[in-house]
Amino acid sequence: MGLPEAPAGVISGAGAGEGFEAFYVREYHAVVRLAYALSGSRLAAEDIAQEAFLRAFRDWEQIRSPSAWVRKVAVRRAGRTVHRRLLEARAVARLLAGRGPAVAELPAEDAEVWRAVRALPRRQSQVIALRYVADASVAEIARTLGMAEGTVKAQLYRGRHALATRLAAPWEDDHV
């Protein structure tokens, strides 16, 4: 059973008239990567992406910029997921009282970098992930997070500087 086409007049990233199914196929993997970068969990990332797309499907007729809308939902959901996992990990750690790590390390090559990104203030981690995982422009990030482009640039600058300091890497501003 296929998914319904977008109603006439709905504007999407690929142009008016793109159906939800085509949008989903085009964007799904990018949204999962974004959620993974922010959550640190492949399973959570897939759940986050699926929830974002389900919400988009339900509201398809009202959404004017589906790519930004879905990313915004995924970014917010990832933040809540990370916060919940942190609370759960603390509870498990208290229960285990030192019997080992409560949360397994991220098995990716870039685990240290993404741990540092997740340790940044929320908005900095969001703009970094959108920029480098979703390859979003400053304008796209601004639309996704509902902030001014200047604010996005400032958050990118601060986030990059903080990451360079935390990771003891040479830092150069690429002028967004």
Structural notes for this entry:
The protein has 176 residues and is mostly helical. Helices cover 65% and strands 0% of the residues. Helix 1 (20-39) runs antiparallel to helix 2 and helix 3 (66-96) crosses helix 6 (138-145). The longest helix is centred in the middle third of the chain and has 31 residues, at 66-96. It is globular, with a radius of gyration of 18 Å. The N and C termini lie far apart (44 Å).
Give a quick precis of the structure:
The chain is mainly alpha-helical and 176 residues long. Helix content is 65%, strand content 0%. It contains 7 helices and no strands.
Terminal-residue CA separation: 44 Å
- Secondary-structure element order, as H and E? HHHHHHH
Largest sheet: none
- The global form is globular
What integer is the average pLDDT? Answer: 79
Structural class: mainly alpha
Radius of gyration: 18 Å
Q: Are there runs of 5+ residues with pLDDT below 50, and where? A: 1-16
Strand content of the residues, in percent? under 5%
In helices, the fraction of residues equals 55-70%
Task: Count the E strands.
Answer: 0
The DSSP helix count reads 7
What topology does this entry show?
Blueprint: H1 20-39, H2 42-58, H3 66-96, H4 111-119, H5 122-132, H6 138-145, H7 149-166
Helix pairs in contact: 1-2, 1-3, 2-3, 3-6, 5-7, 6-7
